[in-house]
Amino acid sequence: MIDDTSIYRSFTVTSIIDETNNAKSFEIKPTDNIPITYQAGQFITLVFPKTNKEDRRSYSFSSAPVLNEPMRITIKRIANGEYSRQLFNHIKPGDTLISSGISGFFRLPDQLDHVRQFVFLAAGSGITPIYSLLKTVLHTTRLPVVLIYSNYSEEETIFHSELLGLRSQFPERFKIEFLFSQSEIQPRRLSKFLLHALLEEHAIPLQETLFYVCGPVNYMLVVSISLITVGVPREHIRKENFNTRQHLIKPLPPDTDAHRVKVFINNAQYEFTVQYPDTILAAAKKLQIQLPYSCEAGNCGSCTATCVQGTTWMAYNEVLMDDEIKKGKVLTCQGYPVGGDVVLQY
Ligand SMILES: Cc1cc2nc3c(=O)[nH]c(=O)nc-3n(C[C@H](O)[C@H](O)[C@H](O)COP(=O)(O)OP(=O)(O)OC[C@H]3O[C@@H](n4cnc5c(N)ncnc54)[C@H](O)[C@@H]3O)c2cc1C
Ligand code: FES
């Protein structure tokens, strides 16, 4: 449900670009013309109102803010997908999209002193945030960039010609490995062996390289395990997970008692009781308190708050790095107050 005190903003679709048979980019701008900022690699969460409820879906920006490109999201139509098909099939220039905010931790680090190289690994629509990130790195640093990009075929490869254009623009620094699993000439599917071979071929300095990975769940698993086996430190692997499936087996919080949670958000303050099995976000939703969220599975980071008092324990976390957790960041969709009351700040 959407009301006036909300965190929602509306965006007007200004233009639509056909990327492949199943993917389109949508250029959007805030309907009220009040500028909004985002960083390369982040995503916007779209809200789809329904009777007495709403659904949310997140879409990464393919545009790079540093290049002053219009805000652009790129959406792949999923067979049987409710909203990707609706957006792909029905949205026209001039239509309005409602958003509950922009977020995401799949960003470039503030400091690049320790980084000698970037390797981006994408599969299918996973190229969307990676395209934004790699344009940013190419245009704002002198660091070499390798993109390893998996698709069924060239025709299904989002941004294929744009990437070739970037390679011509940065021939010394930008290398691309297109892997087409259904190529008649040279079918290539990413495996542990192929990835290791490509890392050797491109002489990647594993300890000083940042790896960014985005694609289907199994792809991300193969890539992450392969990188760790070859000696890449875990903290050098950044992942963006488009999957919104819940993890069925979750550990029990160390304390399942009811505790009070106080939340500060957008100049408003709320206080409510949270008791297992409800997470902080679930308890707030039951009371119709509007907090940011998207996947509700611990995968996207939209629901992140900072715990400024007390202890919040997370059942699952696929996004926050150790240093962010040390600063008090928590995923409220996975978070429970433990050992007493807590105060959260958005
Ligand atoms: C942080 C984040 C960023 C994202 N960025 C993008 C983006 O830039 N571009 C983009 O196209 N999508 C992106 N997604 C995925 C997007 O939010 C939706 O999940 C996707 O569009 C499917 O929504 P739907 O309503 O069409 O499908 P649903 O009706 O929710 O699901 C229909 C069926 O498709 C399956 N399914 C759902 N999502 C996917 C998927 N991603 N791949 C394969 N099968 C799926 C479901 O399990 C289900 O069986 C992102 C997701 C997250 C969490
Ligand atoms: S809503 Fe996605 S991590 Fe919590």
Walk me through the topology:
Layout: E1 9-20, E2 23-30, E3 43-50, E4 53-60, E5 71-76, H1 82-90, E6 96-103, E7 117-123, H2 127-140, E8 145-151, H3 160-169, E9 174-180, H4 192-201, E10 209-214, H5 217-229, E11 237-240, E12 259-265, E13 268-274, H6 280-286, E14 304-314, H7 322-326, E15 329-331, E16 335-345
Parallel strand pairs: 7-8, 7-10, 8-9, 10-11, 12-16
Antiparallel strand pairs: 1-2, 1-6, 2-5, 3-4, 3-6, 12-13, 14-15, 14-16
Helix pairs in contact: 4-5
Flavin-adenine dinucleotide is lined by residues 43, 57-60, 74-76, 78, 80-85, 125, 128, 240, 242, 244, 294-295, 299-300.
Describe the structure.
The protein has helices at 82-90, 127-140, 160-169, 192-201, 217-229, 280-286, 322-326; strands spanning 9-20, 23-30, 43-50, 53-60, 71-76, 96-103, 117-123, 145-151, 174-180, 209-214, 237-240, 259-265, 268-274, 304-314, 329-331, 335-345. Helix 2 (127-140) links the parallel strand 7 (117-123) and strand 8. The strands form 3 sheets. The chain has a 6-stranded antiparallel beta sheet. Strands 9-8-7-10-11 form a 5-stranded parallel beta sheet, sandwiched between helices. A 5-stranded mixed beta sheet has the order 13-12-16-14-15. It is built from 7 helices and 16 strands. It has 346 residues and is an alpha/beta fold. It is globular and about 60 Å long. The protein has 3 domains: 9-103, Beta Barrel (Elongation Factor Tu (Ef-tu), domain 3), CATH 2.40.30; 117-240, Nucleotide-binding domain of ferredoxin-NADP reductase (FNR) module (Rossmann fold, 3-Layer(aba) Sandwich), CATH 3.40.50.80; 259-345, Roll (Ubiquitin-like (UB roll)). Flavin-adenine dinucleotide is lined by residues 43, 57-60, 74-76, 78, 80-85, 125, 128, 240, 242, 244, 294-295, 299-300. FE2/S2 (inorganic) cluster (FES) binds at residues 293-296, 298-303, 331, 333.
